[in-house]
Amino acid sequence: MRRPPREPRRPTLLAGVLAAATLAATLAATLAATSAMLPAQAFARDGAPGTAGLTDRAADPGDTPTAVRRAPATTVRSAPRSLHVVSVPVPESVRGTRARWRFIGNDQAPVLGERTGRLEGAMRDVLFTVRIPATAPAGVQELGVVRFEAPGRATTDAPVLLDVQVVRRVFVSPAGPMPVVPGGEIATVRFDVHNGGNAPDTLQWRVVPPHDWRLLSTFDRPVVLAAGQRLTVAVRIAVPEEAGITSASVRLQAMRGAEVAAEAEAPLEVTAGVGADQVGPTVTASAVSAPGTQDGLAGWGVRVAGRLTEDITVDAQTSQAQGLTPLGLTAMTRVGFFPMPLNAAVAGPGWRVAGGIAGLTVSELSGIGVTGSGFTAAVDGAGSQVSAVAARPWTGAAGAPGGGLYAARVALPVGGRRWSLAHADLDEAGPTGRQLVATSLGVEMPTRFGGTLETEVGHRRHRLGSGVGASVEWRGGHAGTDVFLRAGRAPGGTAAFARASEDVSASVSRRFASGFELAIGGFRVRDDGPSGGSLRNAGAQLTPRARLGDRTWLGMDLRTTGFAARGPTLGFKDRDVQLGLDVQHQFASGLSFTSQALGSRIRRATILGDGTRFETEAPRGQLRAALGKDADWGTAEATLLVERSGVGSGLPPSQSAVGVRVRDLQPVAAWPSLRVGLDVQRLVVGQSTGGLIARADARMWLAGGFRLQAAIERNPLLAVFGGGTVVGALRLERSFGVPMPTIMQPRSAVYVDANANGRRDPGEAGLAGAVVRAGARRVVADAEGRFRPGAASARDVALDDRSLPPGWSVGAITRDAATGHVRAVAVVPGAGLEVLVEVVAADEGFDRVRDVDDLDVYATDAEGRAWLAVPRGGQRWTFTDLPPGTYTLAIGSERLPEPVILRGPAPVVRLDGRTMPAPLTLRVGPRPVRLLPLAPTGEPSSPPVVPVPRSGAEAQRGRQP
Q1: Sheet containing 259-271: order of strands
Q2: Average pLDDT of 689-715?
Q3: If we measure between CA atoms, which residue out of 527, 529, 548 comes closest to residue 537?
């Protein structure tokens, strides 16, 4: 028996109430989601798509779960801090129906506008806007799904994937106050590194220390920094004792492969010792021995360099060696010892006097290469110059008059030109010595078409005659092009202190934006000898150089030279054509490769007095290659040399050398001051083996400030000096400073002005280690804050605030009323300030503000400088050290997923440096969502204030918000 169909159940009152409540909840959720944005925590950091955590905010509690189809995903590719319009295709199964669609995602998915609606007509796409927060991590994650529902049709979910572009941004800045260390000590320089991008970054540190300073820290392994992570990098460096009193800087480069991602320099102050008064020159004494030779303790040297007074410097040195054999002298050059007579130079503002080794180039026509034993002097001022030399020549035949070198030159600016007058009386004595008596007039002036023109004309009288000489030089350039032209005539030539009797030369070089460089030049020289002979020399050169990629250079050198010499009975002529190739490449691992290939063809002719001519022609090839690496542990290089020479070149038919060289190697970690070097080569000449050449050297700082250098070498080629093929040398030296007189120099002090009243009150202590710049001199305050300003005027005394604790500032400078000398320099300590943030109730439909602890809180002083507070959690921020003054507080919400604004006027606080004020409260709240002009992709927008790198000890120095 068939049952009759049931009639539809009529709605009851309870069902109506439930339906109304469901509709109200849906409308409230939709309104709250209109302006919601997704915080950083809403993104899946593993990048795996999925629907975990998604909430169907419009789901009906009474719905019965059914099978849901999945449509192809729609991917949104964009950068942080951007808006993107999403177009989700409507599935074919519901097109043309009045289906309902709704976006189902996280409670705060960054969707702007409506999240639900109905399909109208032939609607093919659902459009809505997605905002990508600044804190969005890189990678792909599922944002949510768009669900399409229609009566009688299958429910379909269309996933929406968010693909956030990778933004790499690294910041490097100095951390902490400037280190102040004396010479010979170890300094630690700290840097703050911040990964400001949205993805992990792999970095490696490269440290660039000052020249000839030893780096003690090693950074061999890459470091992975997560997005937003900060790291402090400590660099240990040994300051040479001979560095003196100076300022230096250490550069840290954050390397991303071969690319410099970010870099910064940290200052470093070197002093002669904390608490030292005015320090004079440094005296360095050394003793050298050559073990293994008959010389024994063979030499000694002394050098004095530094300041005699505030404005006068001295540099004097001598190296003496008695009874040295050539082998012993060769050994001692391996440790940097070269015998020389006493040579001293004293210089002041605009003048210099030197004695001992006297050298001077008077002018092109009045003498170049003038060298002897005597005195030179020079005075410069306001464009004028006076220079002179008076010396005895080093050459001269035995028994002949000693000769003399006397010359002077005066240059004066007149009418936009620089005029010069020179006179020289030069005689090296002996039949082969150079000789010249000359007077010349010159002018240097700019030209209308650019560049500088120098001309000189003068009369020259030499051993074999006299005549008028002249020279013209022009130097100029424009937009990467440099041009040089020269022509000169100097009777007497090189036998009369000139370049040549006649010479003409020209060169042009050009640098292109693509990295290509081209240089071309040529010359022609004629010189007459004192005995009637003559010399001719000419040549041309073409040198292109190209940059192939970021780390590869390719260069070529094509040149031809000709040489001809003619004497009374014999003459020579040479013609040489050379082609060279040069390749340089820098690998990402730090290895560098250089290679030079040179091929030439030499044509030679010998001409006898009767005209008989003998000619030879021979090729020659040469290949040099080197593979090296420069690292914290030192430098290493492997070299190869191969030469082949034809018959008639006068060289061995073949020779080759293979070697390995290591420099500045630190073999023992416990002895950072010990550095060694090794050099091993195997030389092969012709068919026989030339032998093994090996050399080792070491440098080490010893106790008491002594420095030891040692070298030993095995070289078969040294046998030509006699006495063996193995030599060794030891050099021991010690440097110490000579104090300058401080008579009648008042003592000054750097003190902590605790109450900021501008005067030193009882109980206010001195500040040790503060760096005072007194004119050109640097002084470090002692343990009680005392220092001597020397002869510097009061206006030239300043305190280097980089040596102060973070947040401290320079206060009043007290001077003696009668003499004007600086008596005290006040340092004002910074004060602390605590700030609380209160989130007020929203009135634009928002019910809360997430992640308010990511706010940036600033304090801006009257001069516009800003200090960044340190977040403490729990909506609390702290300024650790603020100098006394008036500050206006401000906030930056760029790191928040939802912008906030201050409610009410910005608070203003006055700090006196004595007491810490009560905590301040900032009232903030959300603002209505507005479509604002976008910043460039991946770039941060401007903060409300511009901070400077002077913040609290725990704040990030120099950080851009």
Answers
A1: 180-182, 259-271, 246-256, 201-208, 223-225
A2: 86
A3: 527
> Is there a contact between 230 and 192 (Cβ–Cβ < 8 Å)?
yes
The secondary structure of residue 8, as a DSSP letter, is P
- Using alpha carbons, list the distances in angstroms from residue 437 to 425, 469, 499, 777: 5, 12, 16, 45
Could you tell me the pTM of the whole model?
Answer: 0.56
Positive or negative: CA dihedral 368, 374, 379, 384: negative
Strands 777-780 vs 771-774: parallel, antiparallel or unpaired = antiparallel
pLDDT (tens digit, 9 = 90+) per residue, 204-249? 998 888 877 878 887 878 899 988 888 999 998 888 766 666 778 8
DSSP strand E in 291-383: where? 296-307, 313-321, 340-348, 351-360, 370-381
Tell me the helix, strand and coil percentages in the chain, rounded to 5: 5, 55, 40
Q: Is 252's pLDDT higher than 70? A: yes
SS3 at position 532? coil
Mean confidence (pLDDT) of the chain: 78
Question: Sheet holding 856-860: strands in order across?
Answer: 866-868, 856-860, 885-892, 908-911
| CA angle (192, 193, 198) in 5-degree steps | 145
* Distance in angstroms (rounded) separating the CA atoms of residues 35 and 108: 9
**Partner residues linked to 238 by β-bridges:** 186, 214
Residue among 145, 142, 90, 152 at smallest CA distance from 121: 90
Residue 501 clears pLDDT 90, i.e. is over it = yes
Higher pLDDT residue, 632 or 539?
539
Please report, in angstroms and rounded to a whole number, the separation of the first and last CA atoms in the chain.
82
Residue for token digits 């040692």? 710
For 801, phi then psi, to 5°, come to: -70, -10
Q: In this structure, are residues 838 and 849 in contact, taking their beta carbons and an 8 Å threshold?
A: no
* Single-letter residue type at 352: R
Conformation bin of residue 81: beta by default, left when phi > 0, alpha when psi is -120 to 50: left
DSSP annotation of 776 reads T
**Cβ pair 377, 391 in contact under 8 A:** no
Q: Read off the pLDDT of residues 308-342 as tens digits, 9 standing for 90 and up.
A: 765 688 899 999 987 777 888 888 888 988 888 89
Q: Give burial (CB, 10 Å; 0-12/13-18/19+) of 485.
A: middle
- Are 903 and 925 in contact by the 8 Å Cβ rule? The answer is yes
Distant-in-sequence, close-in-space partners of 55: CB < 8 Å, separation ≥ 6:
104, 105, 106, 107
Please give the Cα distance from 115 to 817 (Å, whole number).
78
User: 3-state class of 667 per DSSP?
Assistant: coil
pLDDT of residue 851: 59
Phi, psi of 154 (to 5 degrees): -70, 140
Query: What pLDDT shows up at residue 843?
Result: 46
> Residue holding tokens 């010399």?
535
Rounded CA-CA distance 197/228 in Å is: 7
Stretch among 4-8, 83-87, 359-363, 857-861 having the lowest mean pLDDT: 4-8
Rounded to whole angstroms, the Cα distance separating 733 from 299 reads 12
Average pLDDT of the segment spanning 703-731: 84
pLDDT digits (tens, 9 = 90+) for 521-539: 999 999 987 666 788 999 9
The residue length of the chain stands at 961
- The residue among 393, 323, 321, 333 whose CA lies nearest residue 357 is 393
Q: How far is CA 887 from CA 24, 650, 768, 883, 905, in A?
A: 48, 83, 29, 10, 13
Establish how many alpha carbons lie within 13 A of residue 41's alpha carbon, considering only the half-sphere containing its beta carbon.
8
* C-alpha closest to that of 738 among 302, 348, 336: 302
Comparing CA positions, the residue from 613, 532, 539, 525 lying closest to residue 572 is 613
> According to the model, what pLDDT value does residue 478 have?
80
Categorize the per-residue pLDDT at 385 as very low, low, confident or very high, splitting at 50, 70 and 90: very high
Q: How many other C-beta atoms lie within 10 A of the C-beta of residue 764?
A: 19
For 110-143, what is each residue's pLDDT tens digit?
677 778 888 877 788 888 888 777 667 888 888 8
